[in-house]
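Reminder to self: tokens first, then the designed residues, so the page reads top to bottom the way the pipeline ran.
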């Protein structure tokens, strides 16, 4: 198995290091600044789509969450109590105190 990678038909021009690095640097900053301003305009557009829920919606979803947490809490309490008793019985039969 060969570990050497070959690139076929790669006709991209090789990038040369230019002596005037400042102009290359400022061009990159302009591109970055443009991307940043584009990002901010996208954020603003998305924030315009945000809808604040009404008080009734908040109350109903809060009630659903509280009831679900209570039910899951009872379920996990029951499962934990069951397995605690099972492990306790197994250890008692094996002679552990």
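Designed residues (97 positions):
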């Amino acid at each position: 198995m060969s570990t050497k990678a070959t690139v076929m038909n790669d006709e991209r021009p090789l990038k040369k290091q230019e002596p005037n690095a400042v102009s290359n640097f400022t061009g990159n900053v302009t591109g970055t600044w443009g991307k940043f301003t584009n990002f901010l305009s996208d954020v603003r557009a998305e924030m315009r789509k945000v809808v604040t829920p009404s008080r009734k919606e908040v109350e109903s979803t809060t009630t659903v969450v509280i009831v679900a947490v209570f039910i899951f809490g009872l379920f996990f309490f029951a499962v934990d109590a069951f397995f605690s008793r099972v492990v306790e019985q197994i250890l008692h039969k094996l002679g552990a105190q």
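Residues 54-97 form one domain.
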